[in-house]
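Need tokens for this chain, all 127 residues.
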Amino acid sequence: QVQVMQSGGGLVQAGDSLRLSCVVSGPRFSIYDVAWFLSTQGTDRKFVAGINRSDNNTHYADSVKGRFIISRDNTKNTAYLQMNDLKPDDTAVYYCAAGPDPYGMGGRQAPYQYLYWGQGTQVTVSS
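Here are the structure tokens for all 127 residues:
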């Protein structure tokens, strides 16, 4: 069974940086797309950033472009979300998601398109 273990997060001030990590168990990480989503006060999960398995192309929500960077290290089965210049509006629970892309779509941004999920980690940005 594939497990997704997240780490990072916490309480920071506006303008600070944080890095979230997620480790995906099993031998198939290199063929998974990976994405980060967020949820606020029980709302539906919203796409933040994604990285394709096939070409390592990245894509971002408009709200985080230029501030967040998604990356992956296939040798460590780990994906990262570097969050810079954090704003109070970034406060949320962040989830890492991973899964295969059987149709080679790439750039997937809907939660249902990802099979494996982390437990979520709280990021709180104070003004």
